[in-house]
Specification:
This protein has 279 residues and is mainly alpha-helical. The protein has one domain: Up-down Bundle (Four Helix Bundle (Hemerythrin (Met), subunit A)), CATH 1.20.120. Helices cover 68% and strands 2% of the residues. About 8% of the residues have low confidence.
């Protein structure tokens, strides 16, 4: 009798390799769905789709590292997906829901957000070639998109009708778009969640805080997401100001606290490209 052929390890490996890219495709689909929803005037659905894309984006990189299937292809595909899900989709959502009545200032603001997001992703890809960076340079584009989407969810169905007819609010939205755009291309350091270390003596307090956050998020999901995104957005300038004050006072800050320059990264030693989150 002939031997029964078992499962091909090569096929299994190929399936595992495709898994993170399949999740990236789901993020891309969510971004595309958001674009379609914005064009159809379904702004709440468009905002939710952006947040769903953020969830998939948080998963693909982690799965790639867990399965050891990180690759340069995955990095590039993830960035292309991010341009749609966190660049084009939020820009079009802001324009169709809020900025369109403002004419030139409106569509220029939306384009500036998209362009700065694309530049942020391009710079992140260059920095990803150098291992050991402790923080992000500039506001990560998923965080900016999360702030936009959760903010529009708070306004809800009033967007485009009664929700943003106030001239002061429109000016505030435009100013916010320009600030987010500049933060993305800035050199302000933003912490990565992977670098957060919880001391053992603080574990109980942190656990209690997590439980409180879960309760708040369950009762006020839109407000919680907006508050969290806003806190993270403001955190970068606060850290940057602290570093400047330390430098002005003559204190020496460890080298890992500094942001790597693009020129230094381009002259790196060609280490393996690792897929990251939070571009």
């Amino acid at each position: 009798m002939g031997k029964v052929a078992g499962p091909d390890p090569q096929n299994n490996r190929r399936a595992v390799y495709l898994l993170p890219n399949m999740i990236t495709s789901l993020a891309l689909f969510s971004g595309f769905f958001s674009v379609v929803a914005s064009l159809n005037g379904q702004f709440v659905k468009a905002a939710v789709a952006i947040l769903v894309a953020g969830l998939f984006d948080a998963l693909d990189g982690r799965i790639a590292r867990l399965t050891r299937t990180a690759s340069p292809f995955g990095v590039q595909y993830d960035s292309l997906s991010d341009v749609i899900a966190f660049g084009m989709a939020p820009a079009l959502l802001m324009y169709t829901a809020v900025l369109k009545p403002l004419g030139r200032f409106g569509w220029l603001g939306a384009f500036l957000y998209l362009a700065c997001g694309a530049l942020r992703l391009a710079r992140f890809n260059v920095q990803a070639q150098k291992a050991g960076q402790k923080h992000f340079t500039g506001l990560p584009i998923p965080a900016a998109a999360g702030l936009v989407a959760s903010g529009l969810l708070i306004v809800g169905n009033g967007v485009g009708s009664e929700g943003l007819k106030s001239g002061i609010m429109k000016v505030g939205v435009v100013a916010g778009v320009y600030v987010l755009s500049l933060l993305m291309v800035s050199r302000i350091p933003y912490p990565g969640l992977k670098q957060v270390v919880i001391p053992r003596r603080k574990a109980f307090q942190v656990l209690a805080g997590v439980v409180i956050c879960v309760v708040i998020a369950a009762n006020y999901p839109e407000k919680f997401l907006f508050g969290f995104a806003l806190f993270y957005t403001v955190l970068g300038p606060v850290i940057g100001t602290w570093i400047l004050k330390k430098l002005a006072g003559g204190e020496v800050i460890p080298m890992e606290s500094y942001t790597l320059e693009d020129e230094d990264i381009l002259e790196g030693d060609g280490e393996e490209v690792v897929r990251h989150n939070g571009a």
